[in-house]
Amino acid sequence: MPISISPFSIRSIRSRSTWRWLRVALLGTSFIVLVLIWGFTLHGVQRQKQLSLLNARAAQNNLSTVVAENLRQLLQDGQAYASNAADWQTRGIAQTGLNLGAQRRGDVVYNRLALFDLQGNMLYATSPSNDKQSITRFIRQQSLDEKATKPALLIAPQSPLYSQSWQVPLLFPVLTPQGRLSALLEADFDLGYLRHLYQSLDIGESGDIRIVTDAGLELARASYSGLQIAYSGPESSIPMISISHPVPDYPLSISVNQGMDDVLTGFNVGKHEQISSMLLLSAMIIGITLWASHLLYQLRAYFDDLLDSETEKQRLIEQLEGEKKRAYELAAHDHLTGLLNRRMFTEMAASHMAGARRNRHSNAILFIDLDRFKSVNDTLGHNVGDRLLQGVAHRLRDTLRESDVIARFGGDEFVLMLTTIENEADIEVIAGKLVQVLSQPYTNLDGHTVQTSPSIGIAIYPRDGSSIETLLLNADAAMYRAKNNGPGNYAFFDASIKNNSPLEFELEQRLPSAISDHELILHYQPKVELQSFRITGFEALIRWQHPQHGMIFPNTFIPIAEASGHIVNICNWVIEAACRQLNQWQAAGLTLLPVAINLSGKQLHDRKLADNIVNTLARYNVPAELLEIEVTESSLVENIEIAGAILDELVNAGIKISLDDFGTGFSSLGYIRTLPINTIKIDRAFIRDITNSHDDAVIATSTITLAHNLGMNVVAEGIETRDQLIHLKTAGCDEGQGYLFSRPVSADAACLLLQDLTRAMA
Ligand code: C2E
Ligand code: CA
Ligand code: CA
């Protein structure tokens, strides 16, 4: 199982002093444990030794007491013989001797009795003795008389003869009834008797029991090896415990001696066992300590390794974090201006868009391009260019709110995101302010003063795109639109400029000069009355004779013109051109037919449109009824009120209105009834399949019927075949337009048609 350990705990374990303390604590604890157990053990041993010694002393004391008491009784037996001989003087020696003999019979302690007077003359003896002279000598040495102090007992020196026979001659005082000392009774004490008695006593191999006189003379000693009389050899060097006890009433004492070793035998056995187990225990403790110490060492090495790798890991992580942060900052900002770069802008914008989605707000993306920046760079140098970009960044920061996101994408492209926008008017205010602020001269750019202006393209989230990529593309496209409107302009994106191809882009750029360079012309397609096949009028259709691309048809460039705003100029040119043409035909004396021109939706916003048309007609001296206006359903729907008012003005001026491309929009005839419309042009999409598609045929037929009910004229567009013509004719369609009759033709060709008509009329 892997050990999981936090760097913090490792670090605390890591410190050298921690390890030293751990080891000291371990060794100290072991040492203290050893000292304690050995202290207790030795103390216990000492106590046991003392107890053993105390016990031995007590036992020896008891023994000596018992032995002394026993000896006293034996001596009292001897004394009893002396008492019986007390009346020897009155009774006579013979009789006393007889009594003593009888009395001693069977006595195993006293082997022989003899009566001596105070002068040492032997008066009687139970048996003869070889050594009576030594007794006589001894008694005379005592210088005894009747008045002398009465000794309890006299111990005569042992003759070599006695010692061999283990007999000690004891002299008991014989007292008269009056208590005077009259004689001494020698009783030979047989120490052999004691030998039997003491044999049963356990005093160990080295121990002995001694009978000692008060004068310090040892009479006998009984030991493990037997009984020794009057021992006078060298004393054993073995340490002994000696207890001595006086024999009551007699000048003797009993000394019990026991070898220390014998006394402590049991204790020593126990002690050795205890010490052995203690040694074993100590060895175990020392072993465990050493093992634990080794383990600590290994653990320390392990933690050292662990921390080293942890530290290395931490260092690597910090290094990576640092690099990541540096890289992130480098990657997030534009080094020249300190603004965000494209990558960071995209990230932040995406997050703002997510917030906007949640809170149902709008965001605006503004794409800013500096007009004339390239020429500043080329003529004044990169330094000035860089300083100019920094100045722009500075002004952007000062002008916008904290919450807005400002970035430089490279070159002179700045991109902003205005967050939490309430309405389009707010954006216009900000865009206008930016144009004003950024158009102020930049002074002191390396000694130069530069004036530039921004072109700003605006795309709104979510209206103009749901992804940041789309919004940026659209804001960029809008920026080109703004640039085309001249320096210091801003433009909102609208769907018509989406997906501009390079050609479209080029056309858009060229459109303004197309008018001034007279590259636009009008072609005319006749409208024919289906009953008579008479030409009833022309539709003027614009063409662009491009010097490089040749003839360009309106479906290609009208949407571009509408999106870029050039459509207004173009339509004004069409009005002018159509009126001029009518004027020329009029001047040529031709019978004139009405010419219809197409108006775009944008123009129907222009309240001056009607005045403009009326003025142009007047300028070219063209009657109003010669001009017709074609408007589409969708252009009307865009701004119904203003469009309605403009149409009213036009109708009031005598101009007829046709509703173009009918069927492709959403309007119903009921709705159109409220507008001053003269003619309905059924879109050629319904005509194309009119002979095959039942649905299309029904739509066309019902439209014709309903339009007639409303008093409107009906024109069918795009009639290409005879079948279509018959079908429409049968359905009651009034007029038709299409390749079957004529393609749109040049003004000259249209002139020929008018000449034919003029001739026919003539
Ligand atoms: P529109 O108003 O519906 O014009 C009729 C279009 O149908 C013309 O295309 C014409 O050439 C074409 N056409 C006529 N007969 C047939 C036919 O039998 N078959 C087929 N396939 N097509 C036929 P054109 O000239 O390319 O114009 C296209 C559109 O451009 C016009 O559609 C109109 O909406 C717009 N447009 C043309 N001139 C002007 C203009 O001066 N101002 C404005 N604002 N729009 C114009
Ligand atoms: Ca038309
Ligand atoms: Ca049409």
Can you characterise this structure?
- With 762 residues, this protein is α+β, with helices and mostly antiparallel strands.
- Helices cover 52% and strands 21% of the residues.
- It has 25 helices and 26 strands.
- It has an eight-stranded mixed barrel, surrounded by four helices.
- α1 (7-14) crosses α9 (265-332) and α12 packs antiparallel against α13.
- It is rod-shaped.
- The model is unreliable at 1-8 (pLDDT under 50).
- The chain binds ligand C2E and calcium ion (CA) (2 copies).
- Ligand C2E binds at residues 525, 541-542, 553-555, 558, 571, 574, 597-600, 630, 660-661, 684, 717-720, 737-739, 744.
- Residues 539, 598, 630, 660 line the site of one calcium ion.
Supply the key terms.
alpha+beta, 8-stranded mixed barrel, binds calcium ion, 5-stranded antiparallel sheet, 26 strands, 762 residues, disordered N terminus, binds ligand C2E
What secondary-structure arrangement, pairings included, does this model have?
Blueprint (H helix, E strand, L loop, with lengths): L6 H8 L1 H69 L3 H4 L1 H12 L5 E8 L4 E4 L6 H11 L11 E2 L4 H5 L2 E9 L5 E10 H9 L8 E6 L4 E6 L2 E4 L10 E8 L4 E8 H4 L1 H68 L9 H18 L2 E10 L1 H8 L1 H18 L5 E6 L2 E9 L2 H15 L3 E4 L2 E3 L2 E9 L6 H17 L5 E3 L9 H15 L3 E10 L5 E12 L3 E3 L1 H11 L2 H21 L7 E4 L10 H11 L7 E6 H6 L1 H13 L3 E7 L6 H4 L6 E4 L1 H5 L5 H16 L3 E4 L5 H10 L3 E2 L10 H15 L1
The site of one calcium ion has 4 residues, from loops.
